[in-house]
Design a protein that fits this description.
11-stranded mixed beta sheet; disordered N terminus; 15 helices; 3-stranded mixed beta sheet; 522 residues; 14 strands; alpha/beta
């Protein structure tokens, strides 16, 4: 089904969505009253920008506990700079602090009656690293193009957000410690519900979208009772969370981290940041040759069920969802830090696949199948495609199947458009859809070219339509059908985007013969 042929000229001329509704640029010194005080932002052309707004209190006061509402202030607080990110064992910008519950807003209007769709982005970096203040997730261009309100945010990560102490410390306040980072996200969405109208947004039309770990956090939120009703659509990008940690495995990981710190559990709340961060170097007691995995926990308090096992979460059955992956995820996940992969040969490929494919099936059989599927592909490209299909893509397939069985409104995409980086050797790699959706194309990953703008326009406009209506179809993209088990309809984004029935069917069936166990489950 080729439903969407288009050219760059058509994109440039005809894909603009609803025009921005404000008649004049925002005030040079825009100010907004929110529940905790008054803030001052800045104008950026047609968009007003507010950075570093507290949505919760300093988590040093609630370490390993549920977050609290922000402390009120008097006067006008400047919201002109990004806030701190969660501590994560890295000296890279931005600044790191336990006072990290901050968000950023880009909006085309401050009219309280405007009721613009709201897009809340949750950053990746698994559950361990990252922030919502990357230049590639600057929301100004997306807000301008779509006439929508865009938010990014920071929350607690790694041991600060996901170290489970419920079986280690008797204090009931620590029963949710394994999901504190998720509870931060719920606190942020509660703040959006209570405040977003002051930024022109509609609290009844909130879309959460996120890449990699951000998508996994969204999948987890879909199964958390406290999140129900706080968002109305979900769009995940290369981010799946089929199962959470079990409490036994999570307790063992917490014990390993505490031992690495050289502390007793009772000393955790008074420990310094440097003492706590030593725990990030602990070896995982269940995953061979890896550091401790951090992620959500089946704690029976805040997360009573696994996100997508044995079925899709019942509480989110009626929530429209888009989920997608890139065709060569591991082009950056593995290839980004290992240039030796560019020199793979047919002789060296099997041994390297044995190491990185994760799914345990015969690698020589895998190579044979892939060489028949893609006879012109290099050993390097086959490595990226096979490791992608054997690793993260499997979780997306499981989630899509579960939603289809449930009859839930679900749309699936696959990004095939290859990055031009280093001549395209890495393919359509993990994170490539971030700049395309945000329309921030001044990067070597996409290149600021007509081809990149064309794909970016198609993808970002689909996101905007989805945020507005719950359906990404329309424009020159045409009809994007719901995903079903009979045809597995998938939108393939490429130089020519089109709907395909069950793309990569052979790859899917090849790896489906082995069980899927999400890392960190045990």
């Amino acid at each position: 089904m080729n439903l969407t042929r288009r050219t760059f000229a058509a994109t440039a001329a005809g894909l603009a969505l609803t025009p921005v509704s404000i008649a004049a640029p925002p005030a040079k010194d825009p100010q907004v009253a929110i529940t905790s005080g008054r803030i001052r932002g800045r104008a950026r052309g047609e968009v007003a920008e507010f950075l570093g707004i507290p949505y919760g209190a300093d988590t040093r006061t609630t370490r390993f506990m549920a977050p609290k509402a922000p402390v009120n202030w008097t006067g006008v607080r400047d919201a002109l700079a990004y806030g701190a990110a969660s501590p994560q064992g890295s000296d890279a910008a931005p600044a790191k602090s336990e006072d990290c519950l901050v968000l950023n807003i880009w909006t085309p209007t401050l009219d309280k009656s405007a009721k613009k769709p709201v897009l809340v982005y949750i950053h990746g970096g698994a559950f361990s690293t990252g922030s919502g203040s990357s230049p590639v997730t600057d929301g100004a261009e997306l807000a301008r193009r779509g006439d929508v309100v865009v938010l990014t945010l920071n929350h607690r990560l790694n041991l600060f957000g996901y170290m489970y102490l419920g079986h280690i410390l008797s204090d009931p306040r620590y029963a949710v410690s394994g999901n504190a980072g998720q509870l931060d996200l719920i606190q942020a969405l509660t703040w959006v519900r209570d405040n977003i109208a002051s930024f022109g947004g509609d609290p009844g039309c909130v879309t959460v979208f996120g890449q990699s770990g951000g998508g996994a956090k969204i999948a987890t939120l879909m199964a958390m009772p406290a999140a129900k009703g706080l968002f109305h659509r979900a769009w995940t990008m290369s981010g799946q969370q089929v199962t959470a940690q079990g409490p036994r495995g999570a307790t063992n990981r917490a014990a390993a981290a505490i031992a690495q710190m050289g502390l007793t559990p009772q000393a955790l709340n008074d420990a310094t940041l440097d003492e706590l961060l030593k725990g990030l170097a602990a070896k995982d007691p269940s995953i061979a040759n890896g550091r401790v995995y951090w992620g959500p926990v089946l704690d029976e308090a805040s997360l009573p069920v696994h996100p997508f096992w044995p079925e899709a979460p019942a509480q989110s059955k009626d929530l429209p969802m888009v989920m997608g992956n890139t065709r060569e995820e591991t082009g950056s996940l593995i290839g980004g830090s290992d240039k030796s992969l560019l020199g793979l040969t047919w002789d060296t490929l099997p041994a390297r696949l044995e190491r990185d494919m994760v799914t345990d099936i015969d690698v020589r059989h895998v190579v044979d199948v892939y060489r028949q599927l893609y006879p012109a592909a290099s050993p390097t490209l086959i490595f990226f495609r096979a490791t992608t299909a054997g690793r993260s893509w499997r979780g997306q397939v499981i989630e899509a199947e579960a939603r289809a069985r449930q009859g839930a409104p679900t749309f699936v995409y696959q990004l095939n458009w290859p990055s031009p980086k280093e001549g395209g050797v890495y393919g359509a790699f993990h994170t490539l859809d971030i700049p395309l959706l945000f329309r921030n194309l001044d990067t070597e990953d996409t290149g600021d070219t007509p081809a990149a703008h064309s794909v970016s326009s198609i993808m970002s406009d689909a996101l905007i339509r989805f945020a507005r209506t719950g359906n990404p179809s329309g424009g020159t993209l045409g009809v994007w059908p719901r995903y079903g088990l009979a045809n597995r309809e998938t939108m393939v984004f490429d130089a020519e985007s089109k709907v395909e029935a069950d793309p990569r069917r052979v790859e899917r069936e090849l790896f489906a013969k082995a069980p899927y166990i999400q890392p960190g489950t045990y």
